[in-house]
Amino acid sequence: GQSLEQPSEVTAVEGAIVQINCTYQTSGFYGLSWYQQHDGGAPTFLSYNGLDGLEETGRFSSFLSRSDSYGYLLLQELQMKDSASYFCAVSPGTDDKIIFGKGTRLHILP
Amino acid sequence: DGGITQSPKYLFRKEGQNVTLSCEQNLNHDAMYWYRQDPGQGLRLIYYSQIVNDFQKGDIAEGYSVSREKKESFPLTVTSAQKNPTAFYLCASSIRGREAFFGQGTRLTVV
Asked: Closest by alpha carbon to A102, among B90, B94, B89, B38?
């Protein structure tokens, strides 16, 4: 089977840094993506890692280790508007399929 | 502006009825997807399509059907065989499975 594991909830303080981990077990692997979803809204794309290493986009960074089947999303200088659910997603093969984890609810305290 | 349009935003269905959810994109993407999201849950893949006139079942395809007659359109029919259809349905498209763009979703409620 194919599965992605990420923590169900994470709590952090405004202005701090938080890391959301994702481990995956899939039959194949082409890349790991991250998405943000606010309550009642649609998911929006944050980042994609096809190769090992760190990708940085403003306050958000994403890391991938293919040998460990592991990645994380790093959010810096947390703002209250970052309170949302964050999903990791894997493209397991050449057929453009995308499967999602169950999501991590990020709570930010003032 | 390019994007994905889902309609309607809210849909009510009587038990035993089939309903069709619309999804249209003008991003020129080959791949399109349908996901189901239940409260507090992740996105579960119903169907996906790599190209016109071809589609594949996802993890929860039972009780659903799709068609892909045009590149821009990927409608989802929720049939009466789907025993628990009340959920938030999300349509998406992507370039080669890398970055998915989502519509605003359709909330389906069985009454």
From this structure: B38
Cβ neighbours of A35 in B, within 8 Å: 100
Q: Do B98 and A101 touch (CB under 8 A)?
A: no
With beta carbons less than 8 A apart as the criterion, state whether B74 and B49 touch: yes
Cβ contacts of B100 on chain A, cutoff 8 Å: 33, 35, 43, 45, 89, 98
Which residue, chain included where needed, has tokens 């628990």? B84
Angstrom CA distances, B55 to B46, B68, B95, stand at 11, 7, 16
Q: Which of A79-83, A94-98, B28-32 has the lowest mean pLDDT?
A: A94-98
Nearest to A48 among B42, B98, B103 (CB): B98
Residues constituting chain A: 110
The predicted-structure confidence for A58-76, as pLDDT tens digits, reads as follows 999 999 999 999 999 999 9
Sequence-ordered list of residues with C-beta below 8 angstroms from that of B1, at least 6 positions apart, any chain: none
Q: Do B43 and A44 touch (CB under 8 A)?
A: no
Residue written as tokens 């035993």? Answer: B16
CB-based contact (8 Å) between B103 and chain A? yes
Average pLDDT taken over every residue of chain A? 94
For residue A23 the two structure tokens come to 């481990």
